[in-house]
Amino acid sequence: MAQHVRIDRAANGVALVVVARADIGNASSPAMLGEIRDAFTELSSDNEVRAIVLSAEGKHFSVGADFGFLKDITAMPASEIKGTVYANFQGAAKAIYRCAKPTLALVQGAAVTVGCELALACDFRIAADNVRFQESWIKLGIMPPLGGVFLLPRIIGMGRAMEMCMLGKQVGGEEALRIGLVSELVAPDQLPVRGLEFARELTALPPMAYATVKQSLQRGLESSMEAEWQANLSNQALLLGSEDFREGLTAVTGKRAPQFAGR
Predict the structure, then answer these.
(1) What is the DSSP code (8-state) at residue 88?
(2) Coil, strand or helix: which one is 65?
(3) Burial class (CB in 10 A: 0-12, 13-18, 19+), 177
(4) 3-state secondary structure of 23
(5) pLDDT by residue (tens digit) across 139-195?
(6) Which one-letter DSSP state was computed for residue 247?
(7) Residue 102's CB: how many other CB atoms inside 10 A?
(8) Residue ranges per domain, the chain?
(9) 75 contacts 42 by C-beta, under 8 angstroms
(10) What is the CATH T-level fold of the domain 5-203, as seen in this structure?
(11) What dihedral do alpha carbons 113, 116, 118, 124 form, nearest 10°?
């Protein structure tokens, strides 16, 4: 049974993965990251879920890694460190990033190291105006291992990514909005409300097309334009033959809201 994370289900197919370690600032541990990984894996295969929100209780999204764990890791052999990082920490980031469904991070207060990386793995980020993103791994003599060095240059540009990853620069709310690190900035007490509103907008999108576009965008980061053109020929052919395409076309021509079924 999960001890650090819970799954809440809202209306319209929205599921929330809520980190509940507010007493220690939602500091990250292998157990907590394993629970996040398992929650996203479970919800990804749940046909009733149309969008997944990652959020955290308390003042902070995550103050970073649990210092108790960081002390323990200094005594671990390299093979155990690799197993822990890949199975839990990187496993959580992979489960979020590769999730075919819409994902949204609601970020407040500190989003440091692991917290920052998990937020980056989501499709969208909405933040409270008191947010503080920081990739301060280098201050511990280590690197961002969960995707930040890959995603940040593509989201905010190489120069700003170097400042965050190589200098450990902290990025506040207004700057995060200006450089595209977050989609929206709201007052802290409005974050849950706006998050659910945005998530419900995501649930109205056609699931098959969303997943295909998302996978294509991600693949495009690691691919070439020629490969994308070839891959998209078959992907678009599948989408054009779907019930969702027929429903979308009928809804547009009939001037009504579509009801997508994911088929």
Answers:
(1) I
(2) strand
(3) middle
(4) helix
(5) 888 888 889 999 999 999 999 999 999 999 999 999 999 999 999 999 999 999 999
(6) H
(7) 24
(8) 5-203, 207-254
(9) no
(10) 2-enoyl-CoA Hydratase; Chain A, domain 1 (3.90.226)
(11) -170
